[in-house]
Amino acid sequence: MVNGKRPALAVSGPFGATKEQSSGLYAMKMAEHGFIALAFDPSFTGESSGEPRRTASPDINTEDFMAAVDFLSKLPEVDANRIGIIGICGWGGIALNAAAADTRIKATVASTMYDMTRVSGNGYFDSADTEEARHEARVALAAQRLADPAAMAGGVIDPLPDDAPQFVKDYHDYYKTARGYHARSGNSNDGWRVIGTQAYSNSRFLYYINEIRSAVLIMHGADAHSRYFGEAAYHYMVDGKADGYKTVVAPNPCPENKELLIIPDASHCDLYDGGYTEPAGQGEPKNMIPWDKLAEFFNKNLK
Fold this sequence. Notes:
Number of domains: 1
Radius of gyration: 19 Å
Helix content: 25-40%
CATH class: Alpha Beta
Strand order of the largest sheet: 2-1-3-4-5-6
CATH topology: Rossmann fold
Distance between the termini: 9 Å
CATH superfamily: Alpha/Beta hydrolase fold, catalytic domain
């Protein structure tokens, strides 16, 4: 401790989850390692304010992380010069955007990250990365705003169809069972508004991450369907170029404090809570999240 004050972490995610789910676990584990840790619900979700509910905004969601840093900085027990953030799933990309914008953030972990702006504009695996596909989506969303702007898109599909992809089954195992269900979680219930992520599809979070000088750890499961987001973000941040990004930019000025950690045999949702034995929601966690490694990363970079 410096002058009796301690380092602190702000934690959020996954996208559509609540603080009682994955982010609360990450905060608790980091608190066990000696950090002051805050898990928070993003604006318009969970117990946070904002209307209409279940609406996402690139600017507001980035501001959510910076507002959490504001809050932690003013706590008497926190060293305001030693604050980091953890973003999980879709909030991993948001965390990187916040770190690019706010130099008070001294260390960032993006765990099992999605780039929500990329998947919103390009589709999964960039399968809809054409002007025509984006135009069709824009026409449909424009019509939806007039027909029923309050309509909900639904959370994780339930019951699962027989032909559901494995990653959808993994989401179901987490959000729809005792393993991770929560009454305030959009993913566990009625999801986002149909037009709730419309602004994401016309934005890009990671444009300036190659200019992040503070420490970054991107952690992903080797078997995660979303692994391409984390690897592309890492290479774009460090090398200035990566598949899926049209702009070639200068390499990072501080590449030595950037890390990419791939967890063997881990799926996307295994890094939500460490993974569980079958059947979902029962048994003991697999403990696939390297908590000691995360603590080591933050201790090293929040000096």
